[in-house]
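User: Predict structure, ligand NAP.
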Amino acid sequence: MSRWYRAALGPSWSPVGLDRIRVAVGGRVVLVTGASSGIGEQTAELLGAAGATVLLTARRGDLLAALAERIVSRGGRAIPYAADLADPEAVDELATRLLADHDRIDVVVSNAGKSIRRSLTDTADRFHDVTRGNAVNFLGPVRLLSALLPRMRARRSGQVVNVSSLSVDLPAANFAVYSATKSAFEAWLRSVAPELRADGVATTSIHFPLVHTAMSAPTYSTRLPGLTARQAAEVVARTLVTRQRLLVPWWVRLAGVLTNNAQGPYEAASAALLRRRS
Ligand SMILES: NC(=O)c1ccc[n+]([C@@H]2O[C@H](COP(=O)([O-])OP(=O)(O)OC[C@H]3O[C@@H](n4cnc5c(N)ncnc54)[C@H](OP(=O)(O)O)[C@@H]3O)[C@@H](O)[C@H]2O)c1
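Assistant: Predicted complex:
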């Protein structure tokens, strides 16, 4: 992240020192979903280095095992749990294993996600994209949290961090399924947040702008301003220190308010842009 880009994001996006992260997560148990690559992988490495026991989940078990080995070789604690979040039975099995293996899970970083860049026309004969996006970005995380949260609430402590996207504030053409499913999870979390807060469980949502990972690579050039996966992990770690409820770049908030209040002109401008491109 260049200096000007960091300045554009504002001070709440700056990294905090490892010592402060250690105070927040040292000796705690942190589940990171989508830990096999990108933001999740870097978050697990960082939290493992800060003394957390990191529970790693994603489908690619070989990558999770290699990551766990790396964390352990540096003196940390990490355990891989391969599972497909889009498969309800696999999610139930994962939750059962996690609850059996660990008396407590202090933090869930709900990071696994699937992004689909596809127009409405191209989605017409690919409804499975809608089903799958919904399963990974909404139904799977809700199912997993529904199983894990009762114990957190009973202990009256914990935090859920939702790794979300600016597409919640600024839905854009060609990203309908992604925006809708990320927004659905955000709405669910906002709705349950008061119940969780009443029981001592904090919630955090981070609306990331572009992060250069395998997910964004097919769509966005690495020359565009964005965070690296490591920098995004530092933002996630920062929220475990600050327990901030919502982190949205100020310019995304502003653009969100403007486009919400001028949907007609915004959609007309987007349509003109699409027409020009095609
Ligand atoms: N990159 C960006 O510009 C950007 C911006 C805003 C928000 N985000 C959000 O950041 C999060 C992480 O994305 P990333 O950029 O780090 O991309 P990434 O490197 O592609 O990571 C996605 C992770 O999700 C896991 N995943 C996907 N489908 C899954 C499934 N069915 N079951 C279990 N795990 C699954 C993947 O693991 P397996 O393939 O091994 O299952 C992988 O570990 C996502 O929620 C994304 O929406 C990204």
